[in-house]
Structure to design on (91 residues):
């Protein structure tokens, strides 16, 4: 989640969409977005596409999504797996 400050421009209050988010969702000036209000929040959605095109993430962005605790748990759960292998078993 990002924190973005609201600004005044004329009679409107506006916020800026960061350039990496604009690029990620393929947005450009003049595009329409949907604003859905909830009780204590609101949701902004692109009207251009329902999915993120393949290849839209950088390696750095993908690596940030790795949950280190989950990796440690996975490594612990498979520790010793295959150590008692005797022949040509496939695992």
């Amino acid at each position: 989640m990002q924190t973005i400050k609201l600004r005044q421009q004329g009679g409107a209050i506006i916020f800026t969409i960061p350039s990496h988010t604009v690029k990620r969702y393929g947005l450009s000036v003049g595009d329409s977005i949907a604003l859905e209000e909830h009780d204590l929040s609101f949701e902004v959605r692109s009207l251009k596409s329902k999915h993120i095109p393949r290849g839209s993430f950088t390696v750095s962005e993908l690596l940030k999504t790795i949950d280190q605790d989950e990796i440690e748990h996975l490594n612990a759960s498979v520790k010793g797996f295959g150590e008692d292998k005797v022949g040509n078993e496939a695992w």
